[in-house]
Design goal:
single chain; alpha/beta; TIM Barrel; six-stranded parallel β-sheet; five-stranded antiparallel β-sheet; 17 strands; about 25% helix
Amino acid sequence: MRRPRQAALSLGFLLGAPALWAGSPFPEVQVVPWNGHKAAASLTFDDGDPSHLDVAVPELDRRHLRGTFFLIANHIDRKDEWRKILASGQEIGNHTLDHLHAKDLAAPDEESQVVGAQRVLQKEFGIQVYTFAYPFNEISPGLKSRVESTDLLARGGTTDRYDITPDQDPDWMEIPARGTLTDIPLSTYRKWIDADYRKGGWLVWVIHGLEGTPSGWEPISQKNFGGILDALQSKDIWVGTFLEVGAYFRAEKVFEHAKVQGTPSERDWSWDLPDHFPEGVFLKLRLVPPPGVPGKLELRQGGRRLTPDSQGIYAIDFGLKRLSLLLTPKT
């Protein structure tokens, strides 16, 4: 099985080889993809259908899983129940004010449908909304521009390649997704999961109605929905919200291109946060020293020494925007 490529930042191109490192290759700092898992998946739900509260949320909560619910701001029922899902870590995202076709929107309409909807959702639920899903998977340049002004990530439509792998640089305003349908058997969904796991990628799911919905589009049975969740949990797949997985992946890509400076005994990474980036994102790194390192290596951030876990993985606070690698000579 091919493992996901790990993003590696070599220090060897900096300032030549200082005397302390003479004759030795520089260490590498590797980003650990998908929060330490072999693959990732995000379950997203559109339109605020009642079956999401009645079926999806209880099934997710029972398995300690989280999903993303894209709500239509002018068409939200059972608001108190939607507020309650936030306490268990579920995410609410923006699906516009009225779920209109992109071709029917003039520039002022695009502004209100995206920016206005975000304001409504944030005021109603007392949260920051970071993610967006295009109604009908329809993306116009104007609509996309408005989304980029308000959101970190946007879920787009279907493509020929659904699984995003760590070696890709995706369009953050048009993340591909794969949708469930009433007539698709559970065996097909399991094949999707197997393919995602095999590729070491991120698969975003789009789910509309579930069993018992009065009007939701293409409802799937509770049995199939539970089977999807069980199949995801049967493998080493990070099942996180659209924001959780997407923010981690964006952090990885930013770190890959971080500015690196150094002295003979220290290297410093610095980076800028993307617009609308949330707090509390921790990026996992692995330090790979070459044989015969002439001293002790130490990662530091925010004035303190970082301690790896039992597998040698470091967790850095991406919001601090800086990381240092120090070498202390052997005495």
